[in-house]
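Tutorial sheet, problem 5. The two components below are modelled jointly, 534 residues in total.
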Amino acid sequence: MNDLFMSFVPGDSVLHRLDPRTKIIGLMLVSFCILDASSFADMFFIALVFTVLVLSCRLPLGHFVRSVRPMLFFFAILFLMQLFFTEGREVWHFSSLSVTYEGLLLGTTITLRFVFLLLFAALITATTSPSRITSGIERLLRPLPLRYVGITSHDMAMMMSLSIYFVPMFYDSFTSLREAQISRGLDIRKEPVKAIFSIVVPLVSGSVRRVEEVALAMESRCYQSTGRSSMHEMKFTGKDHVSFAMFVFLILFLTVL
Amino acid sequence: MSIEVKDLSFCYNRGTSLEKRALDNVSLSIGKGEFVLIGGEIGSGKSTLVRHFNGILKPQSGSVTVSGMASTDRDVRHKAGLLMQYPQKQLFGRTVFEDVSFGPSNFGIKGDALEQRVADALEQAGLGRDIGSLSPFSLSGGQMRLVALAGVLAMQPEYLILDEPTSGLDPENRSSLLATLKELHLSGISVVVVSHQVCEFLPLADKVILLDNGWVSFNGTPVEYVRSVSSPLPEITLLMKDLIREGFDVRDDILSIDDAFEEIVNALEKRGAGQDE
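Model answer (structure tokens):
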């Protein structure tokens, strides 16, 4: 029933209590560091930072492993592409394909980069509730001149939180539809085209209906996109300032290293 | 031949922090031709249990067999036809015929035989034959639900399993659905109804099974049910209990209005005869 991919786990650690803006900015900065990291020393350092953060938020490591697992196939492809299509010193060859030393190195670092990006993102989603993430993004977007394109940062935030809200619903109706059609003898592996139609048609029509209902419900409660107050009043505290200092240190450390 | 469930246990999200035990050592048997009512509160494991009957869920421990066939066999799906909750939301065909024929065609039925099956199923579900050419989305909610029922009946199941078939129906559609189920049962199909509103199906049932937090808390006849379980009882049974408290000589195991009427008339006649003497 519950998909555990990138889900939020309530808690009371430092990471949980940090301002969502700090975490979002932090994630962006860390992502730059990860994309910039090329040596194994850098990777080791990033792994160390990740381990410290996981320990500090007191969540089982298994939770993060599960977040990466659905992408394993993608990682494998990525690794193999680099492995076989990089020019350099040949280490081993298999008919016309050859594995190079450079390919091995590049494949490992690129795959590790993606793994770490995903792990850090999972760290943020695990310690920040979706509503806090959206309110953080809303606050961060506020200085942008969005009104010139006809929307406000509130609109953006509302769209985001609605889409987050619809993901599990969409997933739920997908599972129940699949079960219903399997009950009627559908063999998904044998007849994929039939399966797509019998599941997608009611899935889409049901979702459109649901979206209309939500729009009506919002309309009837006088939804306005401007000047809304928020459940989460955001204020940077000492923790956030310390975190920012650590980000600066992290970047300096990785670039100088 | 029956549905046999032995020591069935099932956990959602096994091995994670969200692990939830839905079924705990459930053993029961549903005989051929029976009308069985499975009740219990929301979250008691009813839906999880019936999802095992046609193999959507595979037993994590224990076993489920349908007419001697393991539930993991794909052919179990047309032996035990499952109508899920809110089935009107699962329609997809351009026409009612296309939708109803989906089940049997998945089991390799074609041509005239298929058309015959669809026509029979529509009739059994209480819909006219001419509805077949319409789009299912042009029908009313109640009719859409009957189309979905026909979609399951078209597989000619030995067991018809319905998950909360009356939820969200208006009283008129509700009573006509009950009548349809009664007729199907009389025609020889075994019917299994899952509902948290046990009372409305009691008059039809041969057997009542109650689940509580994943284990069987009651398994017996409707009469045993109204005698042993304190809540919830049909209003008509409560009325009879009130009458008994007022000194009327009536039975306390009445389930339907017709029986109650007869019993009350009898009691009044007896009382009248007593006063005449």
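Marking note: The interface with chain B takes residues 1-2, 4, 9, 60, 62-63, 66, 173, 176-177, 179-187, 191, 197-199, 201-202, 205-206 of chain A (CB under 8 Å). Full credit if you identified this.
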